[in-house]
Design goal:
- The chain is mainly beta and 101 residues long.
- The chain has one helix spanning 60-66, and strands at 2-6, 9-16, 19-33, 45-54, 70-73, 78-84, 90-100.
- The chain has a six-stranded antiparallel beta barrel with strand order 2-3-4-7-6-5.
- The two termini are 28 Å apart.
């Protein structure tokens, strides 16, 4: 089972590796997974999905076709590794959720 725990929205930078690709506006939904079984320990796991809108000249469809893993530096200092799910800017996390470097 999962629960929506936050919905951050702001402007941030997109990177591929260490290369800055440009600035985007993001709106994310952060879900925390938990067990339905009482007293069952489940490690914390966050899944993030959302949408980015380029503020600079970024070809989202090209990154989607390449299946490039990208990094979003959020305004609050957290980082999200993600894939572009479609050419319109839908995104989904690739495993680590949101974290601080």
């Amino acid at each position: 089972m999962q629960r929506l725990i936050e919905q951050p929205a702001d402007d941030g930078d997109v990177l591929e590796g260490r290369t800055r690709l440009g600035r985007v506006h993001y709106h994310l939904s952060v879900y925390q997974h938990f067990s339905e079984a009482e007293h069952e320990a489940v490690p914390a796991f966050l899944e993030v999905e959302g949408h980015i809108t380029p503020l600079d000249d970024l070809d989202l469809a090209a990154f989607h076709r390449r299946r490039a893993e990208l990094t979003l530096n959020l305004a609050d200092g957290r980082v999200l590794e993600f894939l572009i799910a479609n050419g319109e800017g839908a995104i989904r996390s690739t495993g680590r959720g949101l974290y601080r470097r």
